[in-house]
Amino acid sequence: MSTAILTGQPVPGSSLEGDLRSLGFDVRLASDAGETETLLAAVPADQRVAVVDARFVGHPHALRLGLTDPRFAASALPGAISVQPEARRALSRAVARESSASGGLAVATENLAKRIAAALEADGVAVHHPELGTLVAAVPTDPQERNEARQAVAAVDDEAVRLRSAVKARDGFFTTYCISPYSRYLARWCARRGLTPNQVTTASLLTALIAAGCAATGTRAGFVAAGLLLLFSFVLDCTDGQLARYSLQYSTLGAWLDATFDRAKEYAYYAGLALGAARGGDDVWALALGAMILQTCRHVVDFSFNEANHDATANTSPTAALSDKLDSVGWTVWVRRMIVLPIGERWAMIAVLTALTTPRITFYALLIGCAFAATYTTAGRVLRSLTRKARRTDRAARALADLTDSGPLAELVNRVTRGAVRYAPALVAFAACALVVLGAALSPYGSWWPVLGAAIYVLLSPVAVARPLKGALDWLVPPFFRAAEYLTVLVLAAKADVNGALPAAFGLVAAVAYHHYDTVYRIRGNAGAPPHWLVRAIGGHEGRTLLVTVLAASLTAAQFKVALTVIAVAVALLVLVESIRFWVSAGAPAVHDEGEPA
Predict the structure, then answer these.
(1) Phi and psi for 2 in degrees, rounded to 5?
(2) Mind listing the pLDDT tens digit for each residue in 69-91?
(3) Residue 53, Cα to own-chain centre: how many angstroms?
(4) Which of 285, 299, 341, 421 has its CB 3.0 to 4.6 Å from that of 373, i.e. a possible disulfide?
(5) How far is it, in rounded angstroms, from Cα 46 to Cα 29?
């Protein structure tokens, strides 16, 4: 239970107390600053507390936005201030100063919430001020102002605003025009029945897994059912975020589930398509694995670029200015959003092609579309990086270093060389990636040439991270490392040419990719990278790459398949157990992804 302290004399006919109770607050009345201090001291330290001016007039949703959002330690709107337990000490100090300064006079309650908010900010507490748009939040000082404020409240439909704001501000064309117009009402239906975003997220995952199972049947009816279920899973995927925004049910666990389940659903569906194709006599596991690798590398490019520029200073470029200018023209916004093949357009394409064509055609279209999107976005970001005058921070360099996932072998090389060899990190990473992938691609299965390429990769990759990654193109280092590891596994499994090798490789890449996504979401939540022991235990990108090449050179194709399976299971168990332990018990702030659709 949260507590709201109403300060000043209650206003006859005001619905404020009822509105606060409907938002889950236990309402208490204080006639002056001294009584406010007394009531505040009686509230348990682990509860949220709001101080609200009794004269407040406004929409209930304005109060909801200003007083109940769990993402912020303190938030305020005109006439009201709300703090979570981590900001309670600062609130107590501010109220104590007000009580002492007023001498307990009743007049001291006038603008008390406003003065407290100012005192919290002066004390170093970040106070969030929500965007209210057309919503009303005011503290009238006379009957005429109160009457005008009430008329302004009546003129705006609070529920309509709440529904509109439940939809993500920036989304793809398909999501905006084909899903959100009705999924927002599904979100409201869920809210009124007490369902949580996490429950809807789980339902979306289960629906996608059933869709994957239908695709795995290999029948036309199964493919049609799979396409329909995948679309419904996406509707639920949109609904969970809209439900979170509609009811302000943000949580650390929810943000993690929403992000990781999207990847799990899509990649499980790829596996289902590959199984279905195999039942029909068509082996498309290499295409399925290639699609997963391409999509994962696309995401790493997005994450790395955004982290590199998250808090960069002097972060301007002519290319960015041109992009902003294009976004000012309505139709170009939607074209640019569609050609990057965001999750809505991508899943719609997969669903339709699954129902109407074959898994092979579906994967061909997916690979071509994602390759074009990756080329378009990466080229634009490279151009921006080369033309902008940005100074990147230590935080950005640390985030990029964590995203590289360098393990014990890279540490050993850097310790021996003491970082003496320093070249352009992106160029070195690209050369190392090319050597190991080409070494595997140009040699027959069982050759030791890929091992030599991997050994050189182990020696070169630490050179790329020997100094802080603050250069213009240093954000490309993590994507190059991801491509090197994943493509090496794909090529060697394909070269083995034994039944089951590619599915085993798919499992291994999926397990490692989960670890890399987990790293990204921890960094995004300001929770730091995964513990160093975990990175060491699973070998780092360079250790795993070397291990896979050695196994391919020294084992028969059948034995190599078994080895890949064992490594996949071991990595999956380690990263899943640690990830679940962390996110269930994490003290990371509650977040919800409002960025570009992935």
Answers:
(1) -100, 160
(2) 998 999 999 999 999 999 999 99
(3) 37
(4) 341
(5) 20
Nearest to 27 by CA among 49, 60, 47: 49
Q: Are 32 and 53 in contact (CB under 8 A)?
A: no
Residue type, 64: R
In Å, how far are 296, 402, 414, 525, 540 from 478, measured between CA atoms? 12, 9, 17, 19, 12
> Distance between CA 318 and CA 145 in Å, rounded?
48
- The answer for residues whose C-beta is within 8 angstroms of residue 396's C-beta and 6 or more apart is 307, 308, 309, 310, 311, 312, 469, 470
Q: Report the helix count and the strand count for the chain, using DSSP H and E.
A: 26, 8
Q: Which are the contacts of 404, defined by CB distance < 8 A and separation ≥ 6?
A: 464, 465, 477, 478, 481, 541
Strand partners, 30: 7
Q: Say if pTM beats, i.e. exceeds, 0.85.
A: yes
Cα separation of 92 and 115, whole Å?
13
Q: Does residue 436 register a pLDDT over 50?
A: yes
The span from the CA of 195 to the CA of 523, in Å, is 29
* C-alpha span between 428 and 412 (Å, rounded): 18
Given a contact cutoff of 8 angstroms between Cβ atoms, the answer to whether 200 and 190 are in contact is yes
**Phi, psi (deg, nearest 5) at residue 146:** -65, -40
Question: Does the pLDDT at position 333 exceed 90?
Answer: no
* Tens-digit pLDDT profile for residues 165-189: 999 877 888 998 999 999 999 999 9
Q: In 280-358, which ranges are continuous DSSP H helix?
A: 285-308, 318-327, 330-339, 343-356
Which pair of tokens denotes residue 415? 């310790």
- The proportion of the chain whose per-residue pLDDT surpasses 70, expressed as a percent, equals 92
- C-alpha to C-alpha distances, 324 to 60, 190, 311, 419, 522, nearest whole angstrom: 35, 37, 19, 40, 30
Sequence-distant (≥ 6) Cβ neighbours of residue 91 within 8 angstroms: 40, 49, 51, 74, 81, 83, 116, 120
Q: What is the largest CA-CA distance in the chain?
A: 88
The closest alpha carbon to 420, from 466, 464, 471, 470, belongs to 466
Which of 157, 147, 175 has the alpha carbon at shortest distance from 241? 175
CB 127 within 8 A of CB 117: yes
How does DSSP assign 66-111, residue by residue?
HH--TT-SEEEETTEEEE-GGGHHHHHHHHHHHHHHHTT-GGGGTT
CA-based nearest residue to 5, from 35, 13, 23: 35
